[in-house]
# Entry
Amino acid sequence: MRTLIGAVAATLLFSTAAFAGQTEGLIKKIDKDALTLTLDDGKSYKLNAETDLDALKPGMDIVIAFDVTNGENVITDMQLPDGDTN
# Structure
């Protein structure tokens, strides 16, 4: 029984971890009205209202940390090419 409980706990831990991620790519599009950023792979990520949108430009290489919330990829942190973090 302990093995079963341990296996269930491990499965829950790994399934929770699957909702967070990190990606890297080139910015393809920035939608300032919807507060979204689309990378060159076609995936979109939700920006928060405090993000300095003027610092983001199409063609810029970016590293994004994100969580999946209500089916949306929500940016939790990002690193721009010059090393600044928003």
Q: What stands out?
A: The radius of gyration is 16 Å.
